[in-house]
Design brief:
The protein has helices at 14-25, 37-51, 66-79, 106-128, 160-181, 207-213, 220-232, 259-277; strands spanning 5-9, 29-34, 56-60, 85-88, 132-137, 187-192, 243-245, 248-250. Helix 1 (14-25) packs across helix 7. The chain has an 8-stranded mixed sheet, sandwiched between helices. The protein has one domain: 3-Layer(aba) Sandwich (Rossmann fold). Helix 2 links the parallel strand 2 (29-34) and strand 3 (56-60). It is an alpha/beta fold. It starts with a strand and ends with a helix.
Amino acid sequence: MTGKVCVVTGATAGIGKETALALAKMGATVVIVARDRTRAAGTVDEIKLASENSNVEWVLADFASLNEVRAAAAEIGRRYGALQVLVNNAGVANKYRTLSVDGFELTFAVNYLAPFLFTRELMPLLRSGAPSRIVNVASVAERHGPIDFDDLQSEKSYRGFAVYGKSKLMNVLFTYELSARLAGTGVTANCVHPGAVATSMLRQLPRLLYALISPFLISPAQGAATPVFLASSPAVEGVSGGYYEKGEAKRSSPRSYDVDARKRLWEMSEKLLDSRARGS
């Protein structure tokens, strides 16, 4: 990975941090995107020390703010003329319905709309860096989150796990549509279920359920294995539009293969971003 520029979001802890560390150990230039300045600087210092790679930097962005997402992409563009890897990992899980600073339901905003926008803003750099790769961290929870296109913001009904699952289904649909739109460009897009990883996000689960599954959770380093594989392995060079688990291509949920749904989601996302950009 020497000479390749890799951007990893949500990289101050958990899967994101381990992904950034692994790529740095391979010799990549790594840019972590984080919302807290102190944690970002500390994480960069840790990764530099552990990887013996000084080419690690940070960019600030809270993915709950579309303006900060745009600003982070612009800053990366000022520093680099091309990207070879983008790992969209940042995510949240909320028990209760909360709004982002832009007025969007927070799980939808951070888990889906922000990476959609971030990817769109970085696309010129990814095209310049081709062959390049986009890796979207999804979840098996996508099987439990049907999308109501008349209620993307979960205003009619809000159940934390279902809303999280819906956002991850959106990640998968986005990946498949993105892959189709990028055909022939040298930019690939794949998504991954990292496994049941022991991260702070799972603390949002009901206490009894967390207690039942906790003995079976894997470490963040183990969870990062497949994202790192998709970001770096020659075995998947040129491979696009896949859903991966434990380093192997798998089938995602039947509803994730609905071509009309993925096109409709894309169009609605563009309209939401455009309307927000206009301030309406």
